[in-house]
Amino acid sequence: MAGKSVGLEDLSVAFVMEPLAAADWLIPGPVVFCLLVGSVLLMLRKRTDLQPLIAIPALVVLCAMTLGLLAHVVVNGTVSMTMGRWLPPFGISFTVDAMGAFFAATSSLVALAAGIYGRGDVDHSGRRYGFYPFLLLIMAGVLGAFMTGDIFNLYVWFEVLLISSFGLLVLGNERAQLDGGVKYAFLNLIATTLFLIATGYLYGLFGTLNMADIAIKATELRGTAPLMTLVTLFLLAFAMKAAAFPVNFWLPASYHTPKLVVSALFAGLLTKVGIYALLRILGMLFPVEREELSFIIAIVAALTMVLGVMGALAQNDIRRAMGFLVISGIGVMMAGLALGSPAGLSGAIFYAAHSMVVMTALYFAIGIAAQLGGSFMLSSAGGLYARSAVLAFLTLMLFLSVSGLPPFSGFWPKVVLVKASLDVGAWWLAAAILVTGLLTTIAVGRIWALAYWRPANAGALEQHAAAQSLPAGAMAALAGLVVLSVGAGLWPEPVLVLAQDAALGLIDPSAYVLSVFPGEVPQ
Amino acid sequence: MEPLFALLVGALFTVAIYLFMSKHIIRVLMGAAILSNGVNLLIFTAGRITREVPPIIGADSDVLQASAANPLPQALVLTAIVIAFSFFAFLLVLGYRAFQKLDTDNSDEMRVAEPVNESAPPLGY
């Protein structure tokens, strides 16, 4: 087997020779860490008492890593690392820009909250079936998707998070869960397969899968290659993952069936990964094609937000109403994508981060409310304000935040998006955002009036006479997320600047390209 | 060679989409299996089809010869096969469990999570 050996002096032809800075290990660090802790938890699956004791500190470490990475990116700009030290585009690159780091940090905070909430919500049997290992593995998938700089690798991370989400969804094995799980699993599998089809075509056209490489080559290929077909296919695949109308029906069919903490995690993270992929592929790699499609995206966005909130208005089950509010929020983010201006994209990025925090917190709030003796049904819930004014107060803040009222985190991105729409004359898109805000206020206001403000009826009270006091861990997780939402609402400056940076990085990807190919002349 | 493969991929996609339109979970599952095979063939075709030149660098050279097969689509397809197979296995079990618990594999009758006659939300106190 010993052929002519290559001299050591030739290695720089194929390998990155510069030693890595210590901080650059934060790029693959969070994903590797999640996979490692996930496997340790899998081995310890019978020690259900130990699981949260390992998982929650691990999630704290994860938050520290992703926040450190965010600081690293804010200070040094986009950073990149190629696996196996192969020179890009031959190795798989992890490239983290402001958007990726921002989403990664926000999603880790949400996961930490879910880990703490899950301690009370998931019983020993649920832990034995792998709640905490799946939580860590789904985070590996989500963070990998936010950080990778390679399209096929993005597909792999989509599958990692999808298979973990299947495991979480059927935790409990109830009839409704199997019913919802079947619809969720099939439609999401079809969506990722569409993504794979588009990736196959993309490889055939470009001969590369590295995103920075694609960004360079797209300009040359634009005239000759059928890029519009390709981008439309990507749009369909990711819109399905993000649950945009008219390919959103898997979401209301399944999101209310799993354990509450699982619903909260899904509502916070999964659809936003679809939005992230839309922003990355359409916003950064194919801006010309996105511009061509912008009218269609805008119509989809307006329909998604308005029909989503109308669905929420029609629901008796509060969890299902929340599922429709997730869809409605996706429409607002798609509106930012349709606009494509720096303001539009930064509004979409800010709104995505807001939605991660607030939707998760909303599910937590209704879960605690249900434990306190209310129910998930609007027709029978009541008297929650009398039971716990603190919970009612926190929930009201979240309701105002999701409606986009000041001074909460939902307000600022909507202001940015409405202004960006009016700037380009898309008054109907601005109107759709505002009408959605109004209808959301009505939907959540009614939930608050009926479930919290209305006195409990006597039968319900007696039934839940032994209802426990407020679960401390769950309340802490809820309060933490509410603080994030209120904090971003009262002091939006840093988030607005960060979202603006992230949007500019999408519109002019030269920093992204330079971080992968240091010698490349920006175009 | 490529047009032939393109037609074959198209045929597989057609069969898969036809099966997706069925109400029965088991047929949708078969559609998903066929679709994933079609996608694998698509990636393979997109990465240049050549005959009988394996992608091996000879002892007297540092680079592949130009007519060699492209090794990257093979790696991609291998990954996609593994993923598709594991998903097929999971969905098969999920579909079977759903059939056991819900007594149907007709998606029209799977209305546990979304009941048909769900009551509207109350209009007032």
From TrEMBL, chain A:
> Would I find Membrane among this entry's keywords?
yes
Any Pfam family the entry gives: Proton_antipo_M
- Provide this UniProt record's keywords sorted from A to Z: Cell membrane, Membrane, Transmembrane, Transmembrane helix
Grouped into one coarse class, the protein's main location is membrane
How is it placed in the membrane, per its record?
Multi-pass membrane protein
What stretches pass through the bilayer?
A: 25-44, 53-74, 94-117, 129-148, 154-172, 184-206, 226-251, 260-281, 293-314, 321-343, 349-372, 384-405, 425-449, 470-491
- Localization per Swiss-Prot or TrEMBL: Cell membrane; Membrane
Asked if the Swiss-Prot or TrEMBL record annotates the protein with the keyword Cell membrane, the reply is: yes
Annotated coiled-coil segments of the chain:
none
Q: What residues does the NADH:quinone oxidoreductase/Mrp antiporter transmembrane domain cover? A: 150-440
Top-level taxon of origin: Bacteria
Into which family does the record put it? Belongs to the CPA3 antiporters (TC 2.A.63) subunit D family.
What PANTHER family does the record tag this protein with? NA(+)_H(+) ANTIPORTER SUBUNIT D1 (PTHR42703:SF1), NADH DEHYDROGENASE (PTHR42703)
Q: What is this protein called?
A: Na+/H+ antiporter subunit D
UniProtKB/TrEMBL annotation, chain B:
Regarding the membrane, this protein is recorded as:
Multi-pass membrane protein
Compartment list: Cell membrane
Q: Does the keyword Transmembrane belong to this entry?
A: yes
Task: List residues traversing the bilayer.
Answer: 6-21, 28-46, 75-96
Write the record's keywords in alphabetical order, separated by commas.
Answer: Cell membrane, Membrane, Transmembrane, Transmembrane helix
Q: What is the lineage of its organism?
A: Bacteria, Pseudomonadati, Pseudomonadota, Alphaproteobacteria, Hyphomicrobiales
Pfam families for this protein: Oxidored_q2
Q: Which family does it belong to?
A: Belongs to the CPA3 antiporters (TC 2.A.63) subunit C family.
Q: What is its main location?
A: membrane
Name the domain of life. Bacteria
Please give the name of this protein.
Na+/H+ antiporter subunit C
Write down the NCBIfam families for this protein, in alphabetical order. PRK12658.1
